Amino acid sequence: MAVCPSVDPDRWRNEFEGFASRIGGRFARVESRKRARSFLRGLMAGLPRVNCWTLAEHAGETSPGGMRHFLAGAVWDDDGLRTDLRDYVAERFADAEAVLVIDETGDLKKGKMTVGVQRQYTGTAERIENAQVAVYLTYATPAGHAFLDNALYLPQSWISDPARCQAAGVPDGVAFRTKPELARTMIATALDAGVPARWATGDEVYGNDPALRAALARRGLGYVLAVAKTHQIDTKAGKRKAIDLAVTLPEPAWTWISAGPGAKGQRLYDWAFIATSDQDLPGQHYLMIRRNIHTGEYAFYRAHSPAPVPLAAFVRVAGIRWTVEDDFQNSKELAALDEHQVRRWTSWHRWTLLAMLAHAYLAVTTATAHDTQPADGLIPLTVNEVRHLLVHLAIPRPTPPTAFVLAWSWWRRHHQAHAQTSHHDRQATALQLN
């Protein structure tokens, strides 16, 4: 059997230890530093379920109490750790032509007490559900892509209920901010920190926000932001809907351009561009229209560049927007981004930050492996395959002794029996009151 030179468990192990040491200084106590390393290993371990119970068991601890305290009460430099994530991704994938991709994802939740939860639309379910929503910022370059930052969306129903916010540990002074406002802050933070980037992209939530478009243009950042078909465009004849402009374009106005490679080859569409203006902002502005070459379905974008660029450059940026979907899928499947079972502000931010760090490590390791030619007849390593190999070859978990396995089985069943009894008692009390 041929050996793939791009698989190097010893190097991966050393890089993980270096990665863990790099962030170790953000934790005040040596116990927390060790637990951070164990937490990251557990997030990437492919456990059937990921929570403080399973993470503690995987780490060889005798109860979940230490992991719970690590998330909720241990002393961290949370802002410093977020800086470490941003710097790690930017250093490994740095590119002056990089694209900052913004999008949100939702986690379905039960009840009302988990921070930020309410009935709201989430793309995860593609409908209105009881969910918690957060906005994420991805850094995308030809070398690779990973999250730079995230922000929890706290609905107005929460901000207007101080008691509910206090119970969930929301810090004093947190005000309502729209998703585009959260995006604007994260992008500004990244640019102020020196992250190299030339473009930004996002879906209709962000493209329909004039304040975000203005902020990006004034920063000298080009953008390709999706807008609705009913989006109003200023023309010499007055305001017109984007769809009304699209259907009047003659056939020679359309150009066949690829939005980049996909799973089934090049993603070819018809594209048309209409020069426009936007709030008297400087630079080149367009309404960009995409038409499916098979179905004729339209999609619309507001596009801007500080200086003239080929129209294919805008199309490339539009195609890169889907990298954030890959990051959502991979970080949830491979780093347990959405498996947090926590209710409070601090615990949620810490869990998702550690998951983003684990995903960044996987993304960087995969990109590094791509620098080595794979064996004949093999595709380059994917992030899924890298995670699989890491778990089995680079950072495997020693086989626990029988007594340890049995002790955890007893602990789980004892806890579940206590929870079952409490539930039955509450039901009986409710029936008596009725």
Automatic annotation (TrEMBL):
Residues 27-231 form the Transposase IS701-like DDE domain. InterPro entries: IS701-like, IS701-like_DDE_dom, RNaseH-like_sf. It holds the Pfam family DDE_5. This is DDE transposase. It comes from Pseudofrankia asymbiotica.
